Amino acid sequence: MKKIGGGITMLILTFIGLTAITFVIGRIMPNDPVVAIVGDRASKEVYEAMFLQLGLDKPIWEQYLIFVGNILQGDFGRSVMTTRPVIEDIARFFPATLELATIATLVGIIVGVPAGVLAAVNHGKLFDHIVRILGLLGHSIPVFWLGMVALLIFYAKLDWVAGPGRIDFYFDGIVDPVTGVILIDSALAGEWEVFSNAVSHVILPASMLAIYSLAYIARMTRSFMLDQLNQEYVLTARVKGLKEGQVIWTHAFRNVLVQLITIIGLTYASLLEGSVLTETVFAWPGIGQYITNSLFNADMNAVIGGTLVVGLSFVGINMLSDMLYRIVDPRAK
Predict the structure, then answer these.
(1) Same domain, 139 and 251
(2) pLDDT at res. 220
(3) Is the domain of 91 the same as that of 51?
(4) What residues does the ABC transmembrane type-1 domain cover (predicted)?
(5) pLDDT digits (tens, 9 = 90+) for 266-284
(6) Is there a single domain that holds both residue 15 and residue 152?
(7) pLDDT (mean) for 84-111
(8) 81 lies in a domain?
């Protein structure tokens, strides 16, 4: 009960911190929220009426309490850019980012973890050098440059995949947005032509993000495995005559798994909040592009709402990682 209470307290404090930061950002930005709504040619009377309607005449602490109260009711205000409630925009754009980040993370796990393990086992050999070089390149190459090159080669020249966007315009509206993830919704509806088109569109942007996740996960897996393979219990297992595969995957990798859960969780969370450049290059209608466009249009309700949702998602993923950590490692219970 004490741990549950501590977790709830930490969640509340994190929520207060996130809301406070986003609120302060919204207030210190040089953009006038009233002008963003009524325009710079509005009369003084219209300006003052909107000023009062937004509650900007109240003390700052009261504005914050109203802000938090509205959020707890699911009210992030109305977007100036789209004229829709911000919560509706988030429900529309966030699944697109979730789709990209999830695919990229899965690729990073499926490819990066075995690559990191094999690199550690073959320490100092050719495969190890290849994994290290690819890991370095994955962190060094700018994603916007790589994305444009990928579009030029695989879309414009070879025509192997579809271009920017999430789906071709003539497929838009065919599938009802049940989950918001077009791959899942089209499969549930049995619209396999739409599904195929969506897959063709998602390959390049997901691959760009996957390069980052794969490089990071492989590098960290290699580092963790090297540390475990030098432990005395591994030497003892080998002396006992256990097969090398059993020593690596049953003994050494089991201890690495606890650390990997944290790394994978951080990678997934960073992809959710850091896919702005990828979404911009590929015209992907995700939350990152939504927040960026809102910022350029001085749409602070949308910026604050989107930032807060991404922040809460980051916290939620970290809490889930902590729960999985306790399940995998009984010593943490």
Answers:
(1) yes
(2) 92
(3) no
(4) 94-321
(5) 888 888 876 788 888 888 8
(6) no
(7) 90
(8) no
Kindly write down the DSSP assignment for every residue of 224-251, as one continuous string.
HHHHHHTSHHHHHHHHTT--HHHIIIII
Question: 78 lies in a domain?
Answer: no
Q: Is the pLDDT of residue 25 over 90?
A: no
Q: How many CA atoms lie within 13 Å of 204's alpha carbon, on the beta-carbon side?
A: 33
Cα 243–Cα 247–Cα 249 angle in degrees, nearest 5: 115
Number of structural domains the chain divides into: 2
* Domain assignment of residue 323, given as a range: 87-332
Does 322 lie in the same domain as 262? Answer: yes
Tell whether 10 and 138 lie within a shared domain.
Answer: no
3-class DSSP state for residue 190?
coil
**pLDDT tens digits along 165-195:** 888 888 888 888 888 888 898 888 888 898 9
∠ CA 150-273-279, rounded to 5°: 30
How far from each other are the two terminal CA atoms of the chain, in whole angstroms? 12
pTM given for the model: 0.83
Residue 202 sits in the same domain as residue 65: no
- The stretches of the chain forming alpha helices (DSSP H) are 2-28, 33-38, 44-53, 60-72, 86-107, 113-121, 126-140, 143-150, 182-189, 192-229, 232-239, 244-246, 253-273, 276-281, 287-296, 300-328
Q: Are residues 179 and 208 in the same domain?
A: yes
Phi, psi at residue 85, to the nearest 5°?
-55, 140
Q: Per-residue pLDDT tens for 46-84?
A: 878 877 877 777 888 888 888 888 888 878 888 877 878
* 77 domain-assigned: no
Q: Mean of the per-residue pLDDT values for the chain?
A: 83
Q: What token pair was written down for 257? A: 């798994």
